[in-house]
Write a structure and sequence with these properties.
The complex is a heterodimer. By secondary structure, chain A is α/β, with parallel strands linked by helices. Chain A contains 17 helices and 17 strands. Classes of the chains: A alpha/beta, B alpha/beta.
Chain lengths: 502, 445
């Protein structure tokens, strides 16, 4: 096969010629009356944008999409985000939401007036009693902000003056899958784009050599509840916006090296020719996924150099590993992922999504949560300290939290030193930190039982709207038309939580 | 036939197309008039007119085809116009055949065909017009069309600017006057002049001098967007936070005075308003946005460039370590044409030295500057004195000393200063006055 393809493609290949001539039913209908009629009507009414996504219209380049949408809508505070997702539902009552009155109420029945007829999960609904359980852990106030933190998180306690606690998070979902899906996509049913996909669609990529949205899943977590690729999926957005999961191990992306006996010298030429073939296909069928595939091939090509570079830990000095904890030397652990997240952020990756599973303590909570905190506390705090001293917290947002909280009443039998807690969507704690968020701040409040929010509730959509706001995006104006409707991350809700912004 | 000759004939298309339009519209009008008068006397003329229309439409279509082939036209508009043209030929041919064949068609069928003919003709004509004059030719001045923002009056200097006339009024005109204007006046409220603004609407006064919070105008624009009384209504573009802030300022601190000069207000407001004024000699350059070609050029050189906000065209520019490779001095030069748009700049790890900072001194709109891990000394810091808008400065890993910090005294807007891994200890007394001045200083761990 010749290595030079100078002749124009269209005429050079009879097969392609045939494809070009083809007219199927759908094309016929779009090309003739229906197409003209609707386009003419749309144009007359000045609504060309309705037809974005129509196959007759060539998909515009990412830059022009951004310009058309006027994105970012206003000056951003954040440039990148690290989302430390604590999957399973960490117990706010044992970590940050200190409820001293529970000590006296320990073992007593949860008053009906507090539960207020709330539907419980099938796991504890048929319990004959709902004894309240005070936390087995000691709490203390820290920093200038006097934030309460339990003894489980000694390192996080050191950085409370950087954090903005939201103690009044609420979600509509009570089970893991819909609740995580809700947090990550703005809807409890699968199929919507994830927040990272929306951000990379809405803002493009800063570093063309790395994906804008990278996902890291801890290998050292108790894998009690599954995670699915759709949580970082693109939904109905073009597929180049989906999150790229790095493997938890020495080789985060497989097959980036060249195979044996191949020097890779003509790969560029091969990709160029492949691209021109794909473009002909795209001209013929107008399927935007063909463009996505071209973009993905190009990204993979650039990742051959950029990924080994960014994942190379050999240049990190020892004090860094001491800061993040010894586990950070073992690729794929939560600690190592925190360190890698910092390295990716330094390279201007827009969205780094960490997942750490294992927070689902229905029983034996004290032992389980202690183990979770030991694996995550130091590295989380180290990441914040590291970002701060490097000046990266100025434009990097860090979010910590799970998909819901845990109940004040014990699931299973309450003993002197053991209890469990069921899923609790009505109130839980998350914290944010960095770009544009008030440091050393506490937003919202729960009642003495830690059961209901009594002040400043924040919904999942509110949180999402706030994160988009920090990126200079009006969450009501970042939309994508799909199946006849404009969709957005916050669906039809969400208010920016102005109170937590600097 | 040579190509030039084809083009020559093709160019008669815009002239010729009016012929079939005339014939066909005439035919339809005669038909309507005849039916109205219940008279058959036009029938032959209608048939003839349709025949002429068909033939001339055919010729127009052929000329159009020649014209399109001479280049310069492409895209969706052309496709639709072309298909529409042939559809006109076919439908007028069909109408003619129906008008002269012995067969009898029901009125319904006849009117359908004529209606379709008119529709196709209009659509084709519209797209043809759009091709020739641009797609907003028709709608640009239409009452329902989107107009470009009204230009404010021209001023010779900032000193002339009046807060109401040159800052507040243009905002109201831009955001409110599509509904509150003579001829529409929703809620009996006009916002086209100070007098009408002061007069208020059906619910009384909308501004209360000295009290922005109690002013109905401010209340309505600061409601949650979903509130039914939120203004601007019907999903029109809302006022930005800054716009609300400064209108409130005018009502409250400016006592809603229509004569108050901009220069009599506060520096922050002047700084905000100045680039929005229509100044004569000006600095239009300053406010103009960098064009996409410029940005593409910089990307080719290896910069990471992105627009921070489409409101003001501010840019975030990063020179990646791997692209600098000893060329950073000359790469910085290439930023000079867009220096006023750059609000965030990172030259971290690029090996820039003191002399390169001299070039940065001109980047006076910088808000965030990252120059960490470079061989920059105290002398270089002197160049940063002019960056008075700077809010965040990262000097981590540079061999600067506490003495050099005095160069940064002019940076009144500084909020964060990063001095990790420098020659300055975090306990250095020189840092006290910074921290007392509410600057966050981040030093050694």
């Amino acid at each position: 096969m010749s290595h030079h393809h100078d002749a124009p493609l269209r005429s050079s290949n009879p097969d392609l010629h045939e494809i070009e001539k083809k007219m199927d039913r759908r094309r016929f209908l779009t090309r003739t009356s229906l197409g003209i009629g609707s386009l003419a009507l749309g144009s007359l009414m000045g609504m060309e944008k309705i037809f974005a996504g129509n196959s007759l219209v060539t998909p515009p380049s990412p830059e022009s999409v951004l310009a058309d949408l006027g994105l970012p809508h206003f000056m951003p505070k954040a440039k990148r985000i690290i989302y430390l997702f604590q999957s399973g539902g960490p117990s706010q009552l044992d970590l940050y939401d200190y409820k001293p009155k529970l000590v006296d109420l320990h073992g007593q029945e949860l008053p009906d007036s507090v539960r207020d007829g709330q539907r419980l999960t099938g796991m504890s609904a048929d319990q004959s009693s709902f004894p309240m359980a005070a936390s087995a852990f000691k709490f203390q106030q820290y920093g200038q902000s006097r934030a309460w933190v339990s003894e489980l998180m000694p390192k996080t306690a050191e950085i409370v003056d950087e954090l903005c606690f939201i103690k009044s998070m609420q979600t509509a979902q009570i089970n893991h899958d819909p609740a995580i899906t809700f947090f990550q996509t703005g809807h409890q049913l699968p199929g919507r784009p994830s927040m990272g996909a929306w951000l990379s669609y809405g803002l493009g990529s800063d570093n063309q050599n790395l994906p804008a949205f990278i996902v890291l899943v801890s290998k050292d977590a108790v894998q009690d509840q599954p995670l699915y690729a759709r949580l970082w999926g693109n939904g109905f957005l073009p597929s180049q916006y989906q999150g790229i999961q790095f493997r938890s191990g020495k080789d985060p992306v497989l097959y980036l090296g060249n195979p044996e006996n191949y020097d890779g010298k003509d790969r560029r030429e091969m990709l160029d020719y492949l691209k021109s073939l794909n473009e002909v296909q795209h001209d013929t069928y107008g399927d935007p996924e063909i463009m996505a595939r071209i973009a993905q091939y190009e990204m993979a090509f650039r990742m051959q150099t950029s990924v080994p570079e960014v994942t190379d830990m050999s240049k990190e000095p020892d004090w860094v590993y001491e800061l993040y904890g010894e586990e950070s030397r073992d690729p794929g652990t939560y600690a190592a992922n925190c360190l890698l997240a910092r390295k990716l952020i330094e390279k201007d990756v827009k969205f780094v999504q960490l997942y750490h599973q294992g927070w689902d303590q229905h029983g034996n909570l004290p032992g389980g949560i202690r183990n979770q905190c030991q694996k995550t506390d130091q590295a989380t705090a180290a990441l914040i300290k590291d970002l701060k001293q490097r000046g990266l917290l100025e434009d990097t947002l860090v979010v910590w939290g799970g998909e819901f909280g845990r109940t004040v009443y014990s699931q299973g039998t309450l003993t002197a030193d053991n209890y469990g807690r069921d899923h609790h969507p009505r109130s839980f704690t998350k914290w944010m930190c960095g770009a544009g968020v008030k440091p050393g701040f506490i937003h919202g409040e729960t009642d003495d039982f830690g059961y209901n929010v009594v002040k400043d509730p924040v919904s999942v959509h509110d949180l999402q709207a706030t994160i988009l706001h920090l990126f200079g995006i009006d969450h009501e104006r970042l939309t994508f038309k799909h199946q006849g409707r404009r969709f957005r991350l916050t669906d039809v809700e969400g208010h920016v939580v102005q109170n937590i912004l600097t | 036939m040579s190509e030039d000759l084809l083009t020559f004939f093709g160019r008669f298309h815009p002239l010729w197309v009016h012929l079939p339009i005339g014939f066909l519209v005439l035919a339809v009008l005669m038909r309507a008039y005849g039916d109205w008068k219940k008279s058959e006397r036009f029938s032959e003329a209608i048939s003839f007119s349709l025949l002429l229309g068909t033939v001339s439409a055919g010729i127009a279509a052929i000329l159009g085809l020649l014209l399109s082939q001479s280049g310069g036209y492409e895209g969706n508009l052309l496709d639709i116009h072309q298909i529409g043209g042939w559809a006109t030929v076919l439908s007028s041919g069909l109408a003619w055949w129906m008008s002269q064949t012995g067969q009898k068609f029901s009125k319904k069928v006849q009117y359908t065909v004529l209606g379709l003919l008119l529709l196709v003709l209009s659509v084709t004509g519209h797209y043809g017009g759009s091709l020739t004059h641009g797609d907003d030719y028709l709608t640009a001045y239409a009452p329902f069309g989107e107009k470009t923002e009204t230009e404010a009056r021209i001023l010779n200097s900032v000193e002339e600017a009046i807060l109401y006339t040159d800052v507040v009024q243009p905002i109201l005109k831009n955001k409110c006057s599509s509904c509150h204007r003579p001829g529409k006046a929703k809620g009996d409220l006009l916002l086209d002049s100070f007098e009408s603004l002061a007069k208020g609407g059906e619910n009384g006064e909308v501004i209360l001098a000295g009290n922005a919070e109690k002013s109905e105008l401010i209340r309505r624009v600061t409601l949650p967007e979903s509130h039914k009384e939120f203004m601007p209504a019907e999903g029109k573009k809302p006022l930005t936070a800054d716009e609300i802030k400064w209108i409130s300022w005018w009502i409250e601190k400016g006592n809603a005075d229509s004569k108050l000069l901009l220069t009599q207000t506060e520096p922050e407001l002047i700084a905000w308003a100045e680039p929005r004024l229509n100044l004569l000699q000006t600095s239009t350059q300053q406010t103009s946005k960098a064009d996409t070609a410029q940005l593409a050029g910089l990307k080719k050189l290896g910069f990471r460039v992105r627009v921070l906000s489409h409101e003001n065209g501010a840019l975030d520019v990063v020179l990646p370590e791997e692209m600098a490779q000893g060329k950073s001095a000359e790469l910085i030069q290439s930023l000079i044409p867009i220096k006023d748009q750059i609000h965030w700049l990172s030259l971290a790890n690029t090996g820039i030295a003191d002399k390169d900072l001299a070039a940065i001194a001109e980047f006076t709109n910088l808000r965030r500057l990252r120059i960490e891990n470079n061989p920059i000394t105290d002398q270089g810091l002197a160049s940063l004195q002019s960056l008075i808008k700077l809010e965040v400065l990262n000097l981590n890993g540079t061999p600067i000393t506490a003495a050099g910090l005095s160069n940064l005294r002019t940076l009144k807007n500084l909020q964060s200063l990063y001095l990790w891994n420098t020659g300055i200890s975090s306990t250095d007394p020189a840092l006290n006055q910074w921290e007392a001045g509410k600057v966050k200083v981040v030093g050694d761990r």
